[in-house]
Design a protein that fits this description.
Layout: H1 21-34, H2 39-53, H3 62-71, E1 75-78, E2 83-86, H4 88-103, E3 123-131, H5 143-154, E4 167-173, E5 177-184, H6 197-214, E6 219-225, E7 229-232, H7 249-261, E8 267-274, E9 280-283, E10 286-289, H8 296-311, E11 314-320, H9 325-338, E12 341-346, E13 349-357, E14 362-365
Parallel strand pairs: 5-6, 5-8, 8-11, 11-12
Antiparallel strand pairs: 1-2, 3-4, 6-7, 9-10, 12-13, 13-14
Helix pairs in contact: 1-2, 4-6, 7-8, 8-9
């Protein structure tokens, strides 16, 4: 009788054989992010990985890799103290690789694009032309095309140009946007052995890199929230660690609103990365906490802030990295009140997302 023989699955890593720096660097970056930038711990884990799965070759080992990290400027060694630290170049590479991993599969322009469809001043020319219309910016007249039209329409010998001959360059009116990245660093982000903080950091780095790279006139601020909320710098994102905190989503939203109130741009948004469960709020100088289920007192205050954001034209985009149905229900209601967007992501494939866009009342899958 035919049958099936089952064997223990130990993953595809056993088939990996690194041949050069680039191969090993990809694995190194993943581990470095998990260890929150602890180089010594990262190399120790990488060495253990090599010992177990033989990921390096006889020609290129971990020692060669460390030397190349130094030569390429990704780490710097303080020989007097015997300490090795990662450099600014590593932080930039972190964000670039996160951008490629998280949004690499998405079609160009689908995420983070805040262009409008109309033409106007303060524009970026795309060098295609259209017939001139009353009200078009005269600075955008395409002289070569306009002269060519005049010659065709009126002849070369008796040169005449009128309004019907004119063409102007097409243009896109770019709206400037102020964004606050809000990252949950509560204990639930690593609860039950599920690592949610590492994907959260990847998404935060990808979003910050996308905004800084594509929309250089925009502003971006980063904040984290646990029992309280506070601002951090973009360069600090890889080093973020989960603390023994509850989830004070309210404090995070209040801080983000305060930051955006100081920004002069008319277009404002909050991008909140969380597992979706608020469990804490501050009442006076004390903390009101309830980690069991969804507390109505905390929920009502959170929903109220969603409404306040909407009144102040602050769009809240929630990136949820948990799949619990009751947590998703909270995020959906919060998003509906704010008229914002919710992104639900698989922890193992952040490039595949479901965007529930309540403002357009439709669902897009990338």
């Amino acid at each position: 009788m035919d049958g099936v023989i089952f064997e223990k699955f130990i993953g595809s890593i056993k088939n990996i054989k690194t041949k050069n720096f680039e191969d090993l660097f990809k694995i190194y970056q993943q581990i470095l992010l998990i260890t929150s930038g602890d180089f010594n711990k990262t190399i120790s884990l990488l060495t253990d990985l090599d010992k177990k799965y033989n990921i390096t070759s006889s020609e290129y080992g971990i020692g060669n890799f460390i030397e190349d990290l130094k030569k390429k400027g990704y780490i710097i060694e303080n020989k007097s103290e015997g300490e090795i630290k990662i450099t600014k170049k590593s932080e930039i590479e972190f964000r670039r690789s996160a951008l490629d991993e998280v949004f690499g599969k998405l079609k160009k322009g689908n995420i983070g694009n805040h262009s409008t469809n109309f033409s106007g001043p303060s524009i970026e020319l795309d060098y295609s032309t259209k017939p001139y219309e009353y009200g078009d910016n005269l600075e955008n007249i395409a002289f070569n095309e306009s002269i060519k039209n005049a010659q065709i329409n009126h002849g070369i010998d008796n040169f005449i140009m009128n309004e019907n001959d004119l063409e102007t360059y097409e243009s896109d009116h770019k709206t400037q946007t102020s964004t606050v990245l809000l990252i949950d660093i509560s204990h639930s982000m690593i609860l039950y052995g599920e690592d949610r903080i590492t994907p959260a950091k990847k998404v935060a780095m990808a979003l910050s890199e996308l905004i800084m790279k594509k929309y250089k006139k925009d502003t971006i601020d980063v904040a984290v929230f646990g029992n309280d909320a506070w601002k951090v710098k973009i360069k600090d994102i890889p080093y973020l660690k989960v603390g023994p905190y509850h989830t004070n989503t309210i404090a995070g939203l209040e801080l983000a609103i305060d930051i955006l109130r100081r920004r002069k741009n008319n277009n404002k948004q909050i991008f909140m990365i969380t597992d979706g469960k608020p469990t804490c709020m501050k009442v006076g100088i004390n903390y009101y906490k309830n980690a069991f289920g969804l507390d109505p007192k905390i929920l009502n205050k959170t929903y109220n802030l969603a409404s306040i954001c909407k009144k102040n034209k602050i769009r809240v985009n929630t990136f949820m990295i948990a799949s619990d149905p009751y947590l998703m229900e909270f995020v959906e209601k919060f998003t509906e009140i704010n008229d914002g967007s919710a992104y639900f992501a698989d922890l193992n494939d952040l490039g595949s997302m479901v965007l529930k866009d309540y403002s357009k009342n439709k669902i897009k899958k990338y």
